[in-house]
Amino acid sequence: MSETAPPERRLFGIALRATSATAFGLMAAFLKSASQHGVSTFEMIFYRNVWALLVVGGWIALGPGWSAVKTRAPLAHITRSVIGLISMLLTFGAVVLLPLGEATTLTYAAPILATLLSGLVLAEKIGPRRWIAVAAGFIGVLLVARPGAGITSLGLAVGIGAAFGQSAVMITVRQISRTEQTAAIVFWFTVFTTLAGLLMLPFFGHRHDLETYGILAIAGLLGGIGQLSMTGSLRFAPVSVVVPLDYLQIVWGIVIGWLVFLSPPTPLMLVGASLIAGSGIYTAWREHVRGKMPAEAGSMPEAS
Question: Where are the domains of the chain?
Fold first, then answer.
């Protein structure tokens, strides 16, 4: 398939990206529901990834083929996977400890933090306009990260930690994508996290009823669908066109948190979410314009 998709395929790319954001939003809701059934964060790692591995494996077999997962940089994949695993633990922990809307919104501070890390780690120059976007994003975080209304200090710490973890993932994916294919990055990360989750089960796993296992299976399948539709969107439309659709996940987090988990958003939370989303969209656009965002790095936070 051609790297440059025709203009008329942009709508399809947008539809795929919206599907991805919706799938990840629903996945977070199912994981939060699983936590209310007694499922630990460590168990979520295994079930989310083992079911997603079926989806990813099927996509590779039917699409690019298994030759696409060959790697010339195994140590880079291990480093990226360890960082991604820690990030995923923190992200799922935030979903468990915080209202769904707040957990999702804080995670989306990752692009803002990635801008700062790119200056520190990659020695990239950060211009005044991006500094303004970063400042606006941090104001948004402060508005969302307020005490009370089901938000604890531990939950806030985990949520902010998840954002830092996701920003580190963005930087490592940006680096590894210079030499590795998308299929290899997605496949080896999913394999690594599945095995890591399997090793955790003897220590943190519990027996659950069929309903709970069903919830976990749906969450995992949604994660796999979200990952693939996110990746697929980049084949049909530019990063700058589809990345704003990622922030639809914040909308789903707020709506589902309100209607299903009975956690209505406050006006300050909505203002903060708007600032974070606006800052993230502008940052993604600037990264794309400057040619600093490879397709593989143009991913929403949950993708890890």
Answer: 7-303
